[in-house]
């Protein structure tokens, strides 16, 4: 990880009791072969709520981040099988991805 590396922070709430499935689906999605997908990532579980996930995804550079988030399917709201599986696990009434905030690293260990 390096300074100025682009990323996305996501807060995702699973349906009650589906947190383990959400984590499994997200972990598998990170290995889908997308050349512009995240190169560094962390999935973290809330200590207070086992169905609440924080995801921290970081991309190779701004160009790969832009390509990843500007794909025609994403822009048109079409989900591939992996993303649809995650959407199906998201809590009813929750926004699709809860919190979704683009970031850039300032420093890392």
TrEMBL record:
Database matches in InterPro entries: ABM_dom, Dimeric_a/b-barrel
Signal peptide segment: none
Pfam families, A to Z: ABM
Superkingdom of the source species: Bacteria
Domain ABM: 9-76
Protein name: ABM domain-containing protein
Source organism of the structure: Amycolatopsis bullii
């Amino acid at each position: 990880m390096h300074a100025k590396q682009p990323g996305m922070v996501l807060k995702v709430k699973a349906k009650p009791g589906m947190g383990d499935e959400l984590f499994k689906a997200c972990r598998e999605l990170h290995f889908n072969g997308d050349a512009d997908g995240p190169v560094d990532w962390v999935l973290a579980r809330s200590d207070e709520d086992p169905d609440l996930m924080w995801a921290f995804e970081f991309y190779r550079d701004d160009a790969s981040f832009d390509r990843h988030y500007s794909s025609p399917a994403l822009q048109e709201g079409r989900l591939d099988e992996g993303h649809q599986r995650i959407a199906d696990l998201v809590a009813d009434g929750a926004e699709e991805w809860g919190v979704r905030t683009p970031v850039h690293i300032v420093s890392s260990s």
